[in-house]
Amino acid sequence: MTVERFIKLKNNRIKYHLKSSPNSRQMRLSVSRRGFFVLTVPPKVDYLTVRRFILSQTDWILERFDALVKINQGKAVRCSRRDYLKNKELARSFITARVEYFARKHRFRYGRISIRNQRTVWGSCSEDGNLNFNYILLKMPKDIADYIIVHELCHLRHFDHGEKFWQTVKEILPGYEGIRQKADEIIFM
Ligand SMILES: [Zn+2]
Prior knowledge:
CATH class of the largest domain: Alpha Beta
CATH architecture of the largest domain: 2-Layer Sandwich
Bound molecules: zinc ion
Mean pLDDT: 89
Shape: elongated
Number of strands: 9
Order of helices and strands: EEEEHHEHEEEHHHE
Low-confidence stretches: none
Oligomer: single chain
């Protein structure tokens, strides 16, 4: 049986799912795949014990809470090796299509496209014109994914982040500054 509960921790109202399980011997706190806290408890645990347990986990919870808020606001992306393997080819076709679109329209010539799963790296461009992209672009808001793709394409012409580089980005995506700011707020989990 699962019920929805709230608890206040250092001024944050935290929602969690209290799950009573006949098989569990001790209390266990986790984060579900859909992004909420789940507290699994043995049957017949009283509220005070539950409360004391949660309070003892305050730091653990608040650390994750910030990240979960970001996920719910579309400001965080989750990635794992399993998810990467599952979505890699889908990401490849999505990213390749967007690269081709911008390359044709703005006459970029590029080499190979590789799809990777590197935490903290969204894209890169090698000196011989090969492009690397993080598969997670597939899950990002489309304007951010486009910005990252255009950013790397522009490195084919300007290898640094100088004035000319940003000028080229702006010609292709006139509203890039706002998108860039949004992109900077996204965190990996
Ligand atoms: Zn760059």
